[in-house]
Write a structure and sequence with these properties.
Helix content is about 50%, strand content about 10%. The chain is mostly helical and about 120 residues long. The longest helix has 13 residues, at about 25-40.
Length: about 120
């Protein structure tokens, strides 16, 4: 994470979550991270597997699995919601788990049934 790239509200929410119940991510975010390592967008020593595992371990995030409920929510977002499957799974994970999603994507933030911060 690059804290200097976050809004003050987002950085504050992450700090509060770390001392509270923890920071959660969707498991599809782990896949996105692996893709970034595999493409060389992010660099690390060792295999993609070991690089991803180090990031997850070091960040202390809670990885939330895709459940049938999350899959159904992701499939049912309205037309204005992003079509990207990862965005849909991430948004659905936040909804299903009653989590606040940190995003600067206005199309996601504009969906009023999803609590977001930026």
């Amino acid at each position: 994470m690059q804290p200097d790239k976050l809004s003050r509200a987002a950085a504050s929410a992450i700090r509060r979550a770390r001392v509270g119940d923890g920071v959660a991510i969707s498991d599809i975010t782990v896949w996105e991270l692996a893709v970034l390592f595999a493409r060389g967008t992010l660099r690390a020593q060792g295999t993609v597997t070991s690089a991803v595992q180090r990031v997850v371990d070091a960040s202390g995030v809670i990885v939330k699995p895709i459940t049938p409920d999350i899959a159904a929510i992701a499939a049912d977002f309205p037309d204005g919601f992003p079509k990207d499957p990862a965005d849909r799974i991430i948004g659905a994970t936040a909804m299903s788990e009653s989590l606040t999603l940190i995003t600067r994507d206005e199309r996601i933030a504009g969906y009023t049934r999803l609590k977001t911060i930026w």
